[in-house]
Amino acid sequence: MKPSLDSLEQLSPRIVVDRSNAARSGIRIVLKPREDPQQILLPLDLTPLPPRVMLQVDGNDVIRDLEYVVVDLETTGGAPYRGHRVTEVAAVRMRGTGEIVDEFETLINPDRYIPPFITQLTKISPAMVENAPRFADVADRVQNILHGAVFVAHNAQFDHGFLGMELERCGMRLEGRTLCTVRLARKTVPEVQSRSLDSLMYFFGVDNEARHRAMGDARATATIFRRLLDRLEDHEVTRWKELETFLRRRARRKRKRIANPHPMPDA
Length: 267
What we know:
globular; single chain; alpha/beta; five-stranded mixed beta sheet; 267 residues; two-stranded antiparallel sheet
């Protein structure tokens, strides 16, 4: 005895019987695709947040008078829109004059698989994050250290995109000005060909015993950022609107670069 269509539907919730065009094309029986638990995102908590006082953005702001938060993240992969998540977050808040104001660091349970090559790079294993907080547990602390400051990161598009998506899952928004130390180094460090973090650490003589860990890289980036701010003054760039113009300006001529620069002594 052949099973009826109704019995097939009852047999498996993945079976879908399409009778919408039965007269012309017959009845279609298809299977729903299996959900990959690694790609399932946590439901968003859209509970309204209390209003925050946003600082007025002024192009005449003196760069040295602003506060900056240097952010570095470790993640399960390179694409947040494919479901990759944050495994570690670090933030160093500093004044434009160089003083450190606050620091925050934590491992994050990403609620998804960490590939072995990521563990090999970052030394962050599934066991390390098993009992770590979820991002939602620390979202308020993250937003608090970011509030009112310029978001700074080495390749800021990556960190800003990941952190913005994590905050959106918690019903929050990542707002404010952003500054990328890669772009800034291209304009202020013409002596080197590569503006990778390793190259700039070598050039400026910055030690980092925790490479590819969030706080190690955030502190190293903060040290490099201070040196880049000093170089901005050599270009007579002292205000935010001057910095925006400076970063958009094209170089008139190429300068000779050296592939393996010698470390630069401290001024």
